[in-house]
Amino acid sequence: PFESRAWSRMWSAYAMFDPSYQNHESFGFFIDVGNGWTTIPPCILWNISMAYSELFSPILVGCIGMASYWQICYGTIIYLLSYVYNKRYVGKSMMENFGFIGAMNLVWFFFPL
Question: 6: which of 14, 54, 59, 109 lies 20 to 30 Å off by Cα?
């Protein structure tokens, strides 16, 4: 699951449905890259906290978790609004839009971590 070739295929397939992922100046591109980089430190903290629960306050870890969830959730909402506002759904069936764009992004809305 962590092979770079598999992730690059997924990224390029997604970019076929939403061209903003091909544009390095777009929100869609940067929200995904930004979330990818900025979620690494909280994930490391959570893993350390699970293994060594005495190192960090549960309240601190929970607050960082809520902040990270909000960041991912907010980015997903803004991305979906951008997708609809810019009419990137035009020319695709409802099933393609919901199945590919909707389902893949709703995962980040409901289960961001």
Answer: 109
